[in-house]
Amino acid sequence: MEKITAAITSVGGYVPEYRLTNAILETMIDTNDEWIKTRTGVSERRIQKGEGLASSDMGVEAVKNILQKKGISPDEIDCVICATVTPDMLFPSTANIISDKAGIKNAFSFDINAACSGFLYALTTGTALIESGRYKKIIVVGVDKMSSIVDYTDRTTCVLFGDGAGAVLLEPSTDENGIKDSLLRTDGSGKPFLHMKAGGSLKPSTIETVMAKEHFIYQEGQTVFKVAVKSMADVSYELMQRNNLTGDDIAWLVPHQANLRIIDATANRMGLPKEKIMINIEKYGNTTAATIPLCLWDWESKLKKGDNLIFAAFGGGFTWGATWVKWAY
Ligand code: UT7
């Protein structure tokens, strides 16, 4: 039987209108534009403002974007997978809520939590479902409302993160284009360095946990930085090697946007020049599960059928991975 390949056939995205600039952050905490730009690459981030709005409200916009562009009915979608660490609620899943808001009625939907690598984990899962031959249209969403878990008095984290959503449509491929290979990893011993202390079954929410600010991101930046540089570069290199790809074969690196210096190190290891790297960290910051699909959304018009793309991510967990995609349209 002929092997079915999963192809990305459309990209959608959404970012909130409000821009939290470095200049505004300078008025809130002891920081400065120069430090933020040189240490991270971020100039501004988008923040979802307004009562009653959550990750699903951004995710559904990215999904609707795809449905409109492709002219497909919500009824045709078989499955929605949402990668997020900022679900609307612990349950039901944000994918469920997105499906409801988008009018998707004939699908099953679920969330994946792999922090900044979540989109790659969800994409790999969706790919396997398409390759099984049982499903024809799967939407993979990466969304995070990081502003809901950022402590805006902590200068070591609040300058980094932003809100946003990106999504892709996966369909069976009719040629050799599509998702070719994926290499994903986890190392749970990374938990102490990047996590949220309370709100889970280990430490349920109490007045004390709120007072102790334990519902915000906790990060030991330098440790995470060192592991991220090595892991993201190594996994991308290994993926290229096992598929006999060189820097010349790659049209684009689509890296997770956590820090410009981590991106540069990965590109160097892969032998890629700056012109081949998608970078939008300066305008969105780190949107966690949304960074990779938001890059695709921003660059979609420049992509050509047959282009080799490497997606690479590293995040809390620790989680990391790389995916090789041959662009299908
Ligand atoms: O996406 C998920 C995975 N996360 C990551 O990949 C993040 C990885 N880590 C990083 O990107 C970097 O470690 C950070 C951007 C978080 C921090 O950069 P760094 O170069 O590692 O800075 P540092 O933590 O070593 O801090 C250097 C100095 C410190 O001051 P002293 O001790 O040297 O006096 C900090 O207090 O910079 C200070 N600092 C700041 N100064 C101005 C920390 N945050 C700020 C700030 N503004 N916002």
Describe the fold and architecture:
It is a single chain. With 329 residues, this protein is α/β, with parallel strands linked by helices. The protein is built from eleven helices and 13 strands. It has helices spanning 22-28, 33-40, 55-70, 94-102, 118-131, 155-158, 207-211, 221-242, 260-270, 281-284, 291-299, and strands spanning 5-14, 18-21, 44-47, 79-83, 108-112, 138-145, 163-173, 178-186, 194-196, 217-219, 252-255, 308-315, 319-326. The strands form four sheets. The protein has a five-stranded mixed beta sheet, sandwiched between helices. It has a four-stranded mixed beta sheet with strand order 8-13-12-11, sandwiched between helices. A hairpin with a 3-residue loop joins strand 12 (308-315) and strand 13. Helix 8 packs parallel to helix 9. The chain starts with a strand and ends with a strand. The mean pLDDT is 97. Oxa(dethia)-CoA (UT7) binds next to helix 2, helix 6, helix 8 and strand 12.
